[in-house]
Amino acid sequence: MVHYANGQEPTGELTLRTLAMPSDANAAMDIFGGWVMAQMDLACGIRAAERAKGRVVTAAVKEMSFAKPMKIGDTLCIYTHVTRVGRTSMTLKVEAWAQRYLSDVMEKVTDADFIMVALDAEGRPKAVPAE
Q: Burial code of 20-30, b = ≥16 C-beta within 10 A, e = fewer?
């Protein structure tokens, strides 16, 4: 059974899980923040493409700060939740959590709002279909 640090639980659906490897770390053996952000972007692409029923791109990322480090061996768990749907864009709340290596402890690493835009076959913005 997973134990969430500080009694806080993730918001949204588990969209992506991956293992932090030595090649993802800096000289201090902490995982690069850019690697975490890239995994968050991948998860957004999955969730937004499902919602848009087609191609999407990242238009913006709003404010991200890291509360906890990721370490080699931790499992990165990315949770996503569509919070707003406009005509061609959608906003997703994304949370990155670390399940600590060989542990049942989960700690929130960072979160951000990602704005994704739906595209047609020619790469132009298209309307996000109704649910």
A: beeebbeeeee
pLDDT < 50: residue spans in the chain:
none
- With contact defined as beta carbons under 8 Å apart, do 98 and 104 qualify? no
- Distance between CA 45 and CA 15 in Å, rounded? 10
- Going by their DSSP bridges, the two strands 3-4 and 13-19 should be labelled as unpaired
Residue 86 sits at φ, ψ, to 5 deg, of -100, -155
* Rounded Cα–Cα distance for residues 77 and 37 (Å): 12
Q: Is 42 helix (H, G, I), strand (E, B) or coil?
A: helix
CA gap 121, 4 in Å, rounded: 42
How many helices (H) and strands (E) would you count in the chain?
1, 6
pLDDT at 72: 97
pLDDT at 4 (0 to 100): 92
How many residues in total does the chain contain? 131
* CA-wise closest residue to 20 among 3, 5, 34: 34
Which three-class secondary structure state does DSSP give residue 112?
strand
